[in-house]
Amino acid sequence: MEAYKRVMAARAKGRATTQDYIDNLISDFMEFHGDRRYADDAAIIGGIGKLKNMPITVIGIEKGHTTKEKVKRNFGSAHPEGYRKALRLMKQAEKFNRPILCLIDTAGAYCGIEAEERGQGLAIAENLMEMMTLKTPILSLFIGEGGSGGAIGLAVADQVWMLENAVYSVISPEGCASILWKDASKMKEAAQCLKLTAKELYELGVVEKVIKEKEQGKEFKKVYYLLEDLLFDAFEKALKLPKEELLESRYQRFRKIGAQDEQ
Amino acid sequence: MLRKGLFRKPKNELEHRGMDQAFAQPFIPDDVCIFCSSCKNTLFVTEVKDNNYVCPVCSTHFKVSARERIHMILDDGSFDEFYTDLTSFNRIDFPGYEEKLENAKEESGETESVICGKGTIGGFETTIFVMDSKFMMGSMGTVVGEKITRLFEYATKEKLPVIGYTLSGGARMQEGILSLMQMAKTSGAVKRHSDAGNLYVTVLTDPTTGGVTASFAMEGDIILAEPKALIGFAGPRVIEQTIRQKLPQGFQRSEFLLEKGFVDAIVERKDQKIYLKNILALHSKEVLL
Fold it and tell me: Which of B181, B192, B238 to mutate to test the interface with A (most CBs of A within 10 A)?
């Protein structure tokens, strides 16, 4: 049950979260709050800082480490205002020609009365549309869980990378098992069927790069060093591309998935 | 020892037959009558059909197949269907998907859960897509994404409007991540169509949820809904399980979305053709001012 082990690893306590990545990769980070429409969603951290010497915008879904943090961050499940804050900061990045790094770690967009009342579906739909034509490089990095609509709402990018133990799926293995076999405890089988591991997604052509993870703890520093170089190079290349070319290749990146010539 | 049944009434064949279930209930074949679960009336199918599949007593809008809808909305004989050769197959070896597809094809008589094409409404040319509940509850797999994307690309090239009737349980689990990717793919095509100055009208029908709500259903310039349709991101059962409380009456229905500001108007089925025609007329380049 290899796949479910990855799911467990992606959800593991103590796994690095968005805040850890920001602390280790970005210098002079300033967090900016609010969607200017309704509220600030603590499940999404957004702001600007430097990657090496390059100004970039960072947007990430934060789960938190301690119980107190987790409650504050709504366990990494964003409300519509979170996606709207993200879009606001992405538009700002476009204006100042800053690359955007999205860090994704969520079980899914929040399912609740208020989320529906404020248009969760619309908020994600708008991000999908707008991100497709945002005239600045976007790279989405999956650092933990990639739960369905809540994940893709920040993952319409020029490139999508995944940590080795991150997962990305249309539905949680538990949800899939309960629909398929009316038994949520068969999540291991479901995880296997869904093809949600980084390796499988790479083979399906859904992600461009898988980042090897060393052991957690001190060794994880190496992952940050590696990422710092890789991200810097990717952004530097993308910034040099003519905007039409950048947008065309972003469009084609998604356009080819499930296109007829594959059949 | 007493004989069993000594004091029991002797069996009477005639009496027994009189109590038979088959005689106690009137026999109503399914294809003649339907039962309206809203007003509890039994209605003749012909009567309901003639009324655009709307209950003549309480105006409940019943589900209607994609073909019937096209028949109801487009001018007679104007429909030209596209992309009929695209069919789904089991891309990620998901267990049982082939059988599911076979059953869906048999039940719906369609090859996929969306029908795309072009036609005219009151003489105005438009492209259209309509989703069908009988094909895996209108779920979006790669073929649905591909057909809708192609339709938008065609409409962009031909400078035509798109009218979309949405109905979906969401992304199709059996195609895994590839289904999820269709949300981005279709949204990209909608954006290009929109940026080129073309019109997109969506009509949300019961139910429109999940990945379809979070992509092309909510991306229309004008968003209409049928009365009392369930429209939402998460399904009501999932929300109830998450928050562990009962949802209020009318939650996630069209009227609720109208009140919250997410749809432009609720249009009854009988008025939709005229309504769409008027929208097309107002956006037509041929209209005389």
Answer: B181
ipTM of the complex: 0.94
Distances (CA, A) of B156 to A218, A260, B35, B73, B151: 53, 19, 43, 22, 9
In order along its 263 residues, chain A shows pLDDT tens digits of: 589 999 999 999 989 999 999 999 999 999 999 999 999 999 999 999 999 999 999 999 999 999 999 999 999 999 999 999 999 999 999 999 999 999 999 999 999 999 999 999 999 999 999 999 999 999 999 999 999 999 999 999 999 999 999 999 999 999 899 888 888 788 999 999 999 999 999 999 999 999 988 765 567 888 999 999 999 999 999 999 999 999 999 999 999 998 865 44
Separation between Cα atoms, residue B268 and residue A89, nearest integer Å:
40
- Cβ-based contacts of B171 with chain A (< 8 Å): 148-149, 170-171
A156 touches chain B (CB under 8 A): yes
Question: Which fold does the domain A2-251 belong to in CATH?
Answer: 2-enoyl-CoA Hydratase; Chain A, domain 1 (3.90.226)
State in words which class domain B64-283 has.
alpha beta
All structural domains of chain B with their residue ranges: 21-62, 64-283
Q: Where are the domains of chain A?
A: 2-251
CB distance from A12 to chain B under 8 Å?
A: no
Question: Tokens 């009854």 label which residue?
Answer: B268
